[in-house]
Specification:
single chain, 344 residues, alpha/beta, TIM Barrel, 8-stranded parallel sheet, 4-stranded antiparallel sheet, 11 helices
Length: 344
Amino acid sequence: MRLIEPLGLLDGPAAAEAVAAQRARWLGGGNLAFSLVRLISADGSHLLPVAEIPPAWAETLARLTVPRAPWAGLAPDVPAVMGILNVTPDSFSDGGRYSGHEDAIAAGLAMAEAGAAIIDIGGESTRPGSAEVPAAEERARILPVVRGLARQGVLVSVDTRHAATMAAALDAGAAIINDVSGLTFDPAARALVAARGCPVVIMHMRGTPATMKSSATYGDVAVEVVAELAVRLEEAIAAGVARERIALDPGFGFAKEGTQNLDLLRRLALFANLGCPLLIGVSRKRLVGLAAGETAAPRRAPGSIAAGLYALGHGAFILRVHDVAETVQAVRVWRSLSQGAAVA
């Protein structure tokens, strides 16, 4: 697989000036531009200014520069925050936090009020080493919450690997499916998503949550994750899922260990080669703790926000977070500084 890694990223007036001078190209038709590239192929890698990209790479370059379409009704040039709502007893950071469905609904409404564009509801922990939850139990946990939030006009995503849960959640008012297995765990998932025509998040993972730690072996983690996620993307499209309905997630912490996650985050712009919106989930994860020296997940909010803003500056579209109000405020400031967005 030939890849172009965008480098020398620019934003604001400098980006517009560099593009006008033909010294940079827009990344995904958005607010970031890139002035340098690394061409990656079986022959090795080569660093070049944008103006010197060989004509033979035109098709690859087009994937990086084509303007993104709206996804799930969200404008592609405005970063979105997805609030995490785990209705589980054992999720790594917030398991067991909500004692009942009404508490979970209230928490979801509070996140929406704080500025979350999407509320992502999960009924099965997928932390490393976790066991599968029966789909019937998963549905019992999440469906009342899905209905309660959807009735209030909240844009609901459901974090599930089970096709039966996907179908029931969509029937209950959910709009988005978020599958950590990349639509590979349940053989019926791709056909279900294709038939429903709903937006979907396809994540990279090797193995399952119970086995993935043993699969965290890479040569070049960024290049390999992009290549493997490209396969998941093409499998979904071949099954009838429309490309414009697909967002991608690199899967931080899923079959990636230690510094592999940091290396992947540093080279996030490489995922622009896949031509889809990018969702990033680093909130309170071990990679933040590793960089910050913080062992307690609930105390990783500042580091999570820093990692999220870095991701936005390297092509991310959606930040999936626990700390919604704090992240929304940080994103607003980041936009006003980097993109010249109006301050409300």
